[in-house]
């Protein structure tokens, strides 16, 4: 049994059943659960996942795997002949998934090859900018006088960072990206194309990465400081011991022992991507969708977005009235000691990122 297996849901008594007839002390507070369930079912669920990593590491394939895996296999109508094009711009693709009457909108934000250049200094900036732009859009909706009843949420709830399967250690680029971005978004690191490592190499690599994350003070999801109680800690400690998940992706279906599976066929056998004996894709899927989706969204809203919001509102209170979408007044101590005001220069956003990552 997967350690991430969901807890069984509480079963409300069927509608109209008067299980408490004659019990005059029964108030019926527990019926709130049924009300909440019905409301949530009506609204549906949304999750925005971003994938980041060098080109060719299997980002697009893994997201297709997620859409085609057991979560969505019944509902999505994938086109088996669809070829994955190379990703050239930050692009969001969303799929509507429905299972047992529960609707879910899963959006994947695919980013073009991160760190593909010869000089990769500051290549985290466009991604940081994209994340902050979504916070800004949400904030503008929220502070509108006649705001929408439900604010459209394009905030990035979780960023899956693809580590190349070198088996050595993290590259400075990986450290830099995760160090900065883990302060503004939930980061879930994965080892890409884990089928290229032996089991021993994989375990060693995982351990090395965990040590390096710790040594660099990088707090990836699920962050220890946000565990709410002992039960959370117990469950999340197990996940923290397994991170980064060594994943294999595929959008090809094969027949194995009469069952249809998603896998990669090689001369020496078929790797079943959803089989936990073969790789850890299923753990990643369960974390994102089955066990921690609500928590991932809660931390996005109450920690990451909240920090952005407080900062922005403080800034607009301090400075002269800030027009919507205008970059806040910035004082950057980093860029050659220059002072940057109100996003004048084209790299105003970059300066903002500097300040954000250092202050938040
Ligand atoms: N061995 C192996 N190859 C993979 C895996 N995932 C994707 N690939 C292959 O790697 C190539 C690049 O995949 P793609 O998803 O386009 O990578 P992206 O540039 O990161 O989006 C394709 O030929 C995939 O079939 C994996 O888990 N293992
Ligand atoms: Mg791609």
TrEMBL record:
The keyword Oxidoreductase does not apply. This is Septin. One of its GO terms (cellular component) is cytoskeleton. Belongs to the TRAFAC class TrmE-Era-EngA-EngB-Septin-like GTPase superfamily. Septin GTPase family. Its main location: cytoplasm. InterPro entries: G_SEPTIN_dom, P-loop_NTPase, Septin, Septin3. Residues 1-22 are annotated as: Disordered. Residues 1-13 have a biased composition (Pro residues). The gene is septin9b. GO terms for molecular function: GTP binding. It comes from the Eukaryota. The keyword GTP-binding applies. Residues 43-315 form the Septin-type G domain. One of its GO terms (biological process) is cell division. Keywords: Cytoplasm, GTP-binding, Nucleotide-binding. It is found in: Cytoplasm.
């Amino acid at each position: 049994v997967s350690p991430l297996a969901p807890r069984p849901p509480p079963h409300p008594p069927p509608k109209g059943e008067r299980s408490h007839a004659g019990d005059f002390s029964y108030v019926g507070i527990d019926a709130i659960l049924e009300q909440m369930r019905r409301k949530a079912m009506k609204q549906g669920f949304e999750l925005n996942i971003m994938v980041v990593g060098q080109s060719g590491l299997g980002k697009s394939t893994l997201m297709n795997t997620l859409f085609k895996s057991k979560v969505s296999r019944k509902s999505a109508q994938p086109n088996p002949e669809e070829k994955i094009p190379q990703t050239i711009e930050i692009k969001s693709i969303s799929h509507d998934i429905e299972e047992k009457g529960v609707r879910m909108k899963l959006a994947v934000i695919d980013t073009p090859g991160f760190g593909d250049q010869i000089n990769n200094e500051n290549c985290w900036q466009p991604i940081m900018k994209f994340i902050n732009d979504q916070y800004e859009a949400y904030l503008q909706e929220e502070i509108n006088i006649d705001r929408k009843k439900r604010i459209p949420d394009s905030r990035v709830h979780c960023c899956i960072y693809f580590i190349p399967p070198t088996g050595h250690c993290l590259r400075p680029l990986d450290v830099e990206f995760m160090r900065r971005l883990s302060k503004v978004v939930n980061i879930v690191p994965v080892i890409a194309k884990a089928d290229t490592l032996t089991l021993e190499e994989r375990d060693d690599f995982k351990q090395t990465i965990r040590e390096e994350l710790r040594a660099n003070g990088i707090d990836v999801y699920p962050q220890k400081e946000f565990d709410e109680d002992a039960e959370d800690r117990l469950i999340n400690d197990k996940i923290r011991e397994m991170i980064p998940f060594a994943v294999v992706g595929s959008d090809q279906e094969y027949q194995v022992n009469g069952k249809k599976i998603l896998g990669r066929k090689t001369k020496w056998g078929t790797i079943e991507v959803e089989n936990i004996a073969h790789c850890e894709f299923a753990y990643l899927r369960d974390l994102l969708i089955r066990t921690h989706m609500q928590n991932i969204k809660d931390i996005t809203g109450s920690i990451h977005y909240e920090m952005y919001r407080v900062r922005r509102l403080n800034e607009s209170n301090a400075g002269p009235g800030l027009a919507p979408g205008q970059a806040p007044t910035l004082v950057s101590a980093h860029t050659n000691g220059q002072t940057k005001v109100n996003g004048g220069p084209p790299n105003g956003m970059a300066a903002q990122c500097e300040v954000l990552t250092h202050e938040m």
